[in-house]
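Now for a chain:

_____
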Amino acid sequence: MTSDKINNNQLTKFVSLFFTLLLTVVFLFIAFRNVDLKKSLQLISQTSLVGVLFYLVVFFISHFARAIRWKYMLLSIKKDVSLNHLFGSVMVSYGVSCIIPRAGEIYRALFLGKWENISRSTVLGTIVVERIIDITIFAFASLVSVSLYTGNLYKEITWLKTSLIIGFAFIFFTIVFLIILIQNQERFRKWIIFFSNKISPKLANKLNMLFDTLIEGFSSIKKSKHFIAVILWSFIIIFLYALNTYVGFYMFDMHDQKDINFISAWIFMTISSFGVLIPTPGGTGSYHAIAIFVLTRIYHFSYDVGAAYAILTHFLSYFAFVTSTLLIIYFFNRQRNNKGLPKENFISVFKD
């Protein structure tokens, strides 16, 4: 029986890895099939170091803003959560997702839980709520893009309208489900205990504790002033993302080639973000395909320029995330060691 479970787990992992790699290869082929990589790499070599550094500065500020917003979401759980730990967890999340798609959110909860000595499942609950807020903000930002674009954006990007309808439907049903879950938590708790007790009383007790901590995370934003702060910082975050895109345009002097401005960056940012939703490592392939598509189809840049932009911005983000993850874990472990606390790594964070 145990052997069968191991084999099934290995098969599931293999299928998941194969599907991820297949998606990545397919999107990379779609992205670069019309691109002269030599010309794109030449364009990248001509970018100024100052432009690259400015891009990275805005990049890190935008993710520090995510840490500030998350702090407001956690105030009802722990008031003195370290901003350094919050920022570190955010960067670790993205760093892990650059290697294993979607695994980063789990590690984000695990590391912060360990570093701050709070329930990891409660932290995970706040991340679920944060993701709902993110999807909602980006969905509305996409609608703003539709209104800002001088032509018919739905006609230019045929899959956009369907994607937005699916996105808003997902947001609506998820919010309704969470409201029902929070308001009827005792009923859900009884069902969980009833069914899990049939398997094991120990399992029922663990699931009951897990349910309590998740509910605490789901309902973490208890005060109206905290909710307002979360929404305000959400708008600041998306503004910084658009600014980051705009700085990217200036890295390649794209404003000298076409009539582009901050609105152009906003539209590009909202549409290209759909590429990150596809489960490839760090958006590899999917981001490139959509970024090149938008720059060539909407703003009429050449494929070589579009590819150069996609390659460099993705590389900078990928490099920053992975490097930050390793450095953050290293320096935090040094701090913990000096305080006589155990070091944490990608395996130890799973242990109680």
Notes: The chain has 14 helices and no strands. The longest helix spans residues 303-338.
